[in-house]
Fold this sequence. Notes:
Two copies of one chain form a homodimer. Chain A is 40% helix and 18% strand. Chain A is of the alpha/beta class. Chain A is built from 15 helices and twelve strands. Chain A has two domains: 7-105, RuBisCO large subunit, N-terminal domain (Alpha-Beta Plaits, 2-Layer Sandwich), CATH 3.30.70; 118-370, Ribulose bisphosphate carboxylase, large subunit, C-terminal domain (TIM Barrel). The interface between A and B is large, with 86 and 86 residues.
Amino acid sequence: MTLSSARIVATYHVRCDARAIAVRAEALAIEQSIELPRGAVREGLIVAEIAGRVEEITQTSPEMFMVQVSLAASTMPPEAGQLMNILFGNTSLHDDVALVDVAFPEGYARAFGGPRRGLAGLRTAVGAGDRPLTASALKPQGLGTADLAQLAGAMARGGLDIVKDDHGLADQAYSPFAARVPACAAAVRQANRDTGRHTLYAPSLSGDLDRLRAQMKLVRAEGLGAVLVAPMVIGLPAFTALVAETPDVVFLAHPSMAGAARIAPELLLGRLFRLLGADAAIFPNYGGRFTYSIETCRRIAGAALATWTDGSTDIRPAAPAPAGGMTLDRVPELLDFYGRDAILLIGGSLLAAGDGLTAAAADFQRRVERHGQA
Amino acid sequence: MTLSSARIVATYHVRCDARAIAVRAEALAIEQSIELPRGAVREGLIVAEIAGRVEEITQTSPEMFMVQVSLAASTMPPEAGQLMNILFGNTSLHDDVALVDVAFPEGYARAFGGPRRGLAGLRTAVGAGDRPLTASALKPQGLGTADLAQLAGAMARGGLDIVKDDHGLADQAYSPFAARVPACAAAVRQANRDTGRHTLYAPSLSGDLDRLRAQMKLVRAEGLGAVLVAPMVIGLPAFTALVAETPDVVFLAHPSMAGAARIAPELLLGRLFRLLGADAAIFPNYGGRFTYSIETCRRIAGAALATWTDGSTDIRPAAPAPAGGMTLDRVPELLDFYGRDAILLIGGSLLAAGDGLTAAAADFQRRVERHGQA
Lengths: 374, 374
């Protein structure tokens, strides 16, 4: 990888008066690079190569502009923290700017690696051919280990593809990780033996890298092939470290703490999490508990799936996983919208079935498997 | 520590129509706790204890409300990632809500520990009595190791208290960490021998926990007593791990990636970073390159310094470090505003002095030391 003269092109939306945009764009380019006025830098090469360059300014509405800034790749060795630091670090402190897109030169795709399993690996793991996938979540917070395991077993007996811990399940006294994971794993294993299916149980990992590794060790000891992590909660550097050292495990990326941070959701959830190794990107679907628009959801799914190659390296597609207050009656609509390359994640509305959970899960699974086959 | 029935009280600003605020507040309380409608949870104890409770709703302007929600401490074992997950995880995805304050029950202060050195430890390290401190930054990005070391030496000879790496300096080919840190450390050591002062050099650490630890090892091998980290870039769990294992090192917390995330700056930079172990909190000062208001800056400084005890544990004050486009002529104004309990961080305007850097640094130091002694 030669990054020496290569440039990363970052695109920002900037809210600004038209008379001030040129100066504002230049300030942005400086802030994300040399942090000194060009005049205060004596080294010509630094001004010419290291300083950010405003490549294009396009007005998109009376007070909104799209600003493209190229940044020297040499300032950003491929490390996840430095990636965010250079793309948006100090600029995140300005509330007139959002980061909306990034184009990487050759080298970053290979260095970060993208999903190690991706949508295709997920389908293989659950034996799903090319159909859409189903998922649900173990909750509420506060349930003990036995109750969670009972829910996991019931969902798996309904035939769901993925049963994941709620992202709020960490290592609480009422269901410690070390007890919860073996119990839920055993319940899903037993259900899989009974049904002949391959439901994946994905425990939620949390803590620092030491703790994440200890938890991953238990996950593997239980023979589990998937985990849930919230990259913005555990930190992007820890996320990439974990992905790199367990390439056979499917990583479901949860959007907790990823919101309203003035980074476009399709970029952060769809592209950056994917580049860093997310096999599936969970995001709030339109018309549920969250307010993402249909267009935002379409863009997130598109970004997770789009062909991504830099010539020498292909990044595998990640599975879009719309979630957040979905209901069974919306399955046809969601599948029409997302197509077959998606995981439908329905939690609360399945759990509301109470004793009928397995039947509700089976109903969910059936609706998804049969969609489009009529 | 008994957290079983204790509750954390989080305060949010919510933009909402007055007729809808009760429902919106309840949805927020559920989102940050059980994530299921109360009616869908059969276990009475979970509904009574684990579900978030709306404690108070106060209208602050026609469409703005202050909402206090209490969350069960048992859902949040004291781990930095889970802290953010429970306080703001999914709610970060809603753009009508900002997290503005948190009150912790007993136990968290001791568990997280706060600054291990704090403002007092910083003053002791540089021999500053009770006066305000000075700091500057090594930049621009792109300079080689020898040039950075030369700048560090020049600043230290001017007598500054702290010379830190720019937060953009990571492990770039043009100044690799393993070369830069010993070179800058040597330059500052030599200057300290010449001046008889105790300038601290604080290298910028980056990467995952393995890499952070390797870098910290080098920092200690060089006998350095301070580092710069951006907690939101390295990840809060990695930050707390590092603080816990090197309690003798001063941690300067940089705000990169901490902005515009709908968490009040005084809470995130002033209180949470402090709780997690920041000895100094760097933040964008009013009237510089950033747009934080005077009031926001006053609140950040206040939060970093305020007495903080939960009865059994005191959290040390952290040093407020206003920065971001400050100039020498503003020193009197800044000291009048912040008082003696502050670090003034001036980078670019010192570096603009070029060959006169040492003289400019000495001028800066003199202005700070003499302020209020006339």
